[in-house]
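We store amino acids, tokens; thus:
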Amino acid sequence: KGENLPPVCLAREMSDLQQEFVRVCGEGASPRVVEEGWAAVRGLLEQRDKLANLASCAQAPASFGAQFAAVAYLTGLRLGEPTPVERLVRNAGISVKDFFGSVEEQHLRLHPGEPIPEALRRLKEHYMAATVAWKKYDQLFATLFPSGFVGAATADQTTSDDSKQLGWCAFLVAKCLVFGASGGGNVLDVYHLLVCVIELLLSHLPLDARGGAIWQSLGALVPKEHYPMPAPARAALHAELKADPDRIYKLDSAVAKVSADLRATLGLQQAAGGPSSAPGLLRDAASLRKAREAVDARYAKLVVETKQPLDDRALSSIASLPSASAAGGAMPRGVTSPCRSSSAACARSGNAVLMTPLRDPNPPSSPAHSHLMATPMSGQLECVGWLRAAVRGVPAEEASEALAGYFAHCSASPAEAIEQRLDGLCDKLRAAAGEYEAEEIDEQCVLGRRLYHKMLLAFLESEERRLQHGHFVETLLSQGIFHSSLFACCMECVFASYCMQSSVFPQIMHTLDLSPFDLYKVIDPFVKHEPSLPQYLRVHFREVEVKILEHMAWALESPLHAQLREYDALLASPEAAGGESRAATALEQFLKKVKYLAASRVNDLCLRLLLRKELVAQIWECIKVVVEGPARHLMRGRHLDQIIMCTIYGVCKVNKRQEEAPKTFRDIIEQYKRQDKAAAKVFREVRMGDAGEPPQDIIAFYNKIFIPAMKDHLLRILDASRKQQRSPCSTLQSTAESEIRPPSGVLASPQRVLGDRDVFVSHPRTPVAAMTPRTRTLYAFGDSPSGATLPLPLPPASLATPPS
């Protein structure tokens, strides 16, 4: 096949790599982890990965940092001797986000077909909650403690740093004591514990250090060294920090134990200030350093005793580490093209080529739809406040008077059947709740039932306004799937607001036995019928919808496939012009959203790859062939991104020019990985033909499944494109451009990146019998990884992801 595999690493190079792996593991790493981890690294190097532009053995060993850190972590998990994540990240010189991505990818290579370790999921949750807490503490410290924990007269940078570190370590001690080995994965619980610790610190602040703006509302309400604060001061503090008083009160007994532990750590005595007071906790600058060191040592001991997945003292230093791009790895997120300067020049010249294959702007995943709250914690707190206000006065166990009025339209009241259905769904949620969440599931089911009654009324009122009659009520209220899906959306609001990670989508879908497509049909009207829904939840539901559109609705067992077959048969029938059913309208809307999502991602990936406008038009025509029906079977059990990457490769393959560097799967995958929400599993594990056949990588899928199904369509679209280039009157380009309406600021760069590029090697057993020369050009063989790679020059500034 003309393979040109990279040379086997020389002994000297392998020795250098081994030394680098040992360095990344760190001095305290287990010898077993180092030995077996290095054996795993050697195995990965010998695989000569076809799907990634990894550094060659001859390049600097430091360029392997992310891979080495990931393998060391996975090896430690398998052996029960985990290596501290903060040490691996620091030694490898990568960000924590890049570390997580590398761990998932190396796990897929080392253990194909096996699920991601549960420990990694818990680590992510812990890291997210701790990072939010650190950023909030960092923000609040400057406001609440402007001179640190000492008076302004003696304050300096040293005392401010010591104060900040003491407060953070006191919170980390509290987190270990209250949440134990779980580490507090729930963001809301972690934040409210932080509020408790802040209250403890404020109440023990020396009188001459009470200079922050908060004291204008607290004033003389807080006696010296008295915790908890008196009720008026407490209410003022909770209002200032937007904390839920009920959650604070539930933590009071736990904080009393934390205070006792701090007293014991610092050798203090309990005084009359209250059972949770620690007199002398914050005294003067001279004692501050000793107190910080003592609490720091106490936390270090608790990290081991409670088996914390991450040492949170390192968060501030981890945040300042170089990103993967600085270490020679992937481009930071948000970069859309390696040629920002050329795009800008193109805009100035007025010769811009518009690239988005869309009629309407802003598909579900576009940045215009992805505007998040300023801080995650603010969004969570806003959601909790909205939820409680939205259901205030709405009954949980029975229909309201207005809802009962609609029930009266039915021949037999559905009230009892609805409440029985809700009881059964709540029982399923209770049975599936995690050990930590079981305590709160009853309260949350009550909130969910109240929101369900509110939203059911909104649905009925909206439908009545649309139809101008009430004859639809009995039909709608008799649909069990509708009620289950609506209740699932209501509970998703509750779980997302309270950050119940083990219950939110997609888990709620499995718990309530719902198909993704059935849930999808309710999401859009649910969001529209609640105009006061917080932006945080709107973004959350949009992300849920995108996951359904891109792959979950296309699962093998999904009812979508049968409905689409009926829909296609209806369109092919002569009677199809007689009108459309609501089901057909829903399917058309679903396919339209899939095309919007595909258009957004095609635009982004083509822009990153610097593809010519005629290639983008051909790619879009091929995507429509898959989504609109002729080759829709390719989506069954697969991911939309898999189809997009294969289409881009196939179109580039048949349009290759002599003067152009070839676009290989490695190039496409490298750019794909820079997209938001990209996942290594998408290109490393693709479903093949039979359900029982193990998944293979995207190259095998392309050769064995995609090209046999799409060959005729690719060549037909190529011929039409060539005719259009010869005859301006041809309709292909004009039709494509009529669907290509760009967002503002999206421009195609005319520059090409020339020079040698890494290419990938195909499976050598691709069937090639009876191939015509033209068909042969479609397959992915003959390309092979190069031993040397010329780095792609990047501009000094990144180009923001354009809306589509």
User: Anything to note?
Assistant: The radius of gyration is 30 Å.
